[in-house]
Specification:
TIM Barrel, five-stranded parallel β-sheet, 11 helices, globular, hydrolase activity, acting on carbon-nitrogen (but not peptide) bonds
């Protein structure tokens, strides 16, 4: 993967973060109606589609849980600092990595696994799944899974964040058949442009304004703003009564009866 998103990819992500879900060519770019009411954003008819294929974009339990996720396409020098903060505050996270990242930063991937974080599948080459067939998608996912297994103690993967946030019913179905769970997000902001960072307070304020019970937060590790704001975000949310959970907690809760999960 190149060290910069293509212009097309950036435009897709910009549109998906700022507008409701809309059809793009043969697929959809993930998006939602942002709000500052501290409620789960509305995704309209796509809620039933995600439910049909066991995909997630938030925790609908109503509890004040937060799920921190990062997308790692390439390294900008901030991931180690982010891992330091997570370790200090015992906050679990999921890092969705690409083949480029695994190849270039094996020590960081090993550290993620060693310190108890989940490494998720963001594909090997970061293509648009909605213009691919099932077999080629399978190759993308398996290649990344094998790359992570070869350099860490994590030998399999179950969480998928589709490249560029692109999806359609076929990709949701195929991923589900391949044993993957799609993980979208309910809180994000424009943080990936490394030459247009706005300072830690911008990142902090974006999270503060959009936070809601059950939020799955998407952050990019290439952002210096995120690295500098992360500890402040964690402390502020904990003061508001939020608990930081892993995606395993979310999925396990939905698969097991509440009485058993609460034991």
């Amino acid at each position: 993967m190149r060290k910069r998103f293509s212009i097309c990819a950036v435009l897709v992500i910009l549109a998906s973060l700022c507008t409701p879900l809309s059809s793009l060519a043969s697929g959809y770019g993930w998006g939602y109606s942002k709000n500052e009411a501290h409620k789960i954003p509305d995704i309209g008819k796509y809620a039933s589609l995600l439910e049909k294929y066991n995909a997630y974009y938030a925790d609908s339990s109503g509890e004040k849980n937060v799920y921190v996720t990062f997308d790692n396409g390439y390294e900008q020098g901030y991931t180690a600092d982010i891992l330091d903060v997570l370790k200090k505050h015992q906050v679990p996270a999921t890092f969705f990595v690409t083949g480029h990242y695994v190849k270039e930063e094996p020590k960081l991937v090993k550290r993620m696994v060693r310190e108890g974080h989940i490494v998720g599948n963001h594909s090997y080459h970061h293509p648009d799944f909605t213009v691919m067939n099932k077999e080629n998608i399978k190759k993308e996912l398996e290649s990344l899974e094998e790359a992570v297994a070869a350099i860490s103690d994590q030998k399999d993967m179950k969480y998928l964040r589709p490249p560029r946030g692109m999806f359609n019913e076929d990709t949701l179905n195929w991923a589900n058949e391949l044993g993957y769970i799609h993980i979208f997000w309910s809180l994000a902001f424009k943080d990936w442009e490394t030459d247009k960072q706005k300072g830690w307070k911008y990142a902090f304020d974006q999270v503060k304004e959009q936070i809601h019970p059950g939020a799955i937060i998407l952050l990019h590790t290439v952002s210096s703003d995120n690295a500098k704001a992360l500890e402040k975000m964690i402390r502020a949310l904990q003061k508001q009564g939020y608990s930081f959970k892993s995606l395993d907690d979310l999925v396990l809760r939905n698969k097991l009866p509440e009485a058993i999960y609460g034991l």
